[in-house]
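[Solved] Which block belongs to which protein?

Original post:
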Amino acid sequence: MGVNLMATIWGIEIFGPLIEQHGEGGHIVSTASIAGLISGQSNAYNVSKYGVVALSEGLRRELAPRGIGVSVLCPGYIRTQIMNSTRNLPKRFEGAVRALPTSGPFAEHINMIRERVSQGIDPIYAGELVREGVEKDWPYIFTDLEFEPMIEARFAEIKQGFDHIRGRNPKR
């Protein structure tokens, strides 16, 4: 939560006022994940990424009248070093992060992600999409269509929730 959600909030708290102060408008891009729109096997991760999506959606409406655009990047698997992120861990946190398991179901899941990331989308291509998204003021920036069916299924389930109560008159 600290890295995925709070760092996003803190960055916006710092840079948002600076963008507004110069009076020339600007654009904020927050990185969520496709996991910010569909639930997976890691509830904490999904909650943090859903939070970034919700924050971005709300800020987009709030900041538009001030000439500040807001987009949320929801990438799928990008060929990065994310699976080796402990390489950036400050010395003061050594020992605070558990080593990843080397056997068992969770290790298998981690290895599957590691493989997907190694075959992922070129980060330069993702960066080009972000540039285009900023220039064209896209609310959502996606990197590929792989997860579109899962998002469509999620929205179909949400719509079905409304269909269950369609035609009823709520008591007030």
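(Second protein starts here: sequence line, then its structure tokens.)
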Amino acid sequence: MKIICIGRNYTDHIKELENEKPTDPVVFLKPDTAILLKKQPFFIPDFSNDVHYEVEVLVKINKVGKHIQKKFAHKYYDQIGLGIDFTARDLQSQLKEKGLPWEKAKSFDGAAVVGDWLDKTQFQDVDDLNFSLQKNGSLVQQGNTSLMLWKIDEIIEYVSKYFTLKIGDIIFTGTPAGVGKVIANDKLVGCIENTQMFSITVK
């Protein structure tokens, strides 16, 4: 399986990182080795002094597809999740300055938290989901999928032009504003609406 990530999909997050608003979705990949194992803590890697959390709504693909039209995209997933795209921000900045790819900053071991999954039929509208992240009991990120520049079905249409989507693939749909640094002993808890989707500790 592969992890397909969408960057710069919320206007407020684009502004906080002083990035340009993209004309097309920003796409990057994480390998399956980036997934943080269940019930394991997140260990800050020794090559970064500035790892940031980025909470994101996730979509799990349930059938093979290529060149999927937006009107059919809803048939290619039936589960919604929540996760964290951990980013070594200092390393990412160095790579961006040199015009190099981000993978070392985004795709290292443990950089993808994948929480629990919920059947999408539990929600009236996947394009109107509230989600949040708490750090040590304080709210640090909150968002709603209605604020995405590209909604879930539009993302599936776009990425399937370039990559064949396969069963088990996971799409990270982008993060809202409020990203920040983690330090040892932080506890991160993510929720969709009022349902807790993950809880992890930082080491």
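Accepted answer:
You had them paired correctly. Confirming on the second one: The longest strand covers residues 77-85.
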